Amino acid sequence: MTTREITLSNFDDTIKEGGIVLLDFWAAWCGPCRMFAPVFEKAAEAHSDIVFGKIDTEAQQELAGGFGIRSIPTLMAFRDGIMVFNQAGALPAQQLEQLIEAVEGLDMDQVRKEVAAAQAE
């Protein structure tokens, strides 16, 4: 599967699909973003069961602003609609694979309990 363009209009539906969603916040003028793009694309091709979305921070300023994006590239991972990873900086291929494995291995019942406890505070 290739990457998908994520916009304000399709963001919620994409996250609510369930499963794993990886988002790359980027811009055309960003050198590290251009360097990370082929790594992200290759991972998308290798993991057809995961949604790989790209958010152009120039075109989607409201979405980027809503997440407080200050540095790009920024990579976010969602699983079952819950953000489980958020980090600025390009990842090498091996680290991206490790991240994917970690997200796949999460105990989502435990994650939901932790989210509920944090929201109750």
From TrEMBL:
The record marks 24 as: Deprotonates C-terminal active site Cys. Residues 1-105 form the Thioredoxin domain. It comes from the Bacteria. Keywords: Disulfide bond, Electron transport, Redox-active center, Transport. One of its GO terms (cellular component) is cytosol. This is Thioredoxin. It comes from Gordonia desulfuricans. The gene is trxA. Transmembrane segments: none annotated.
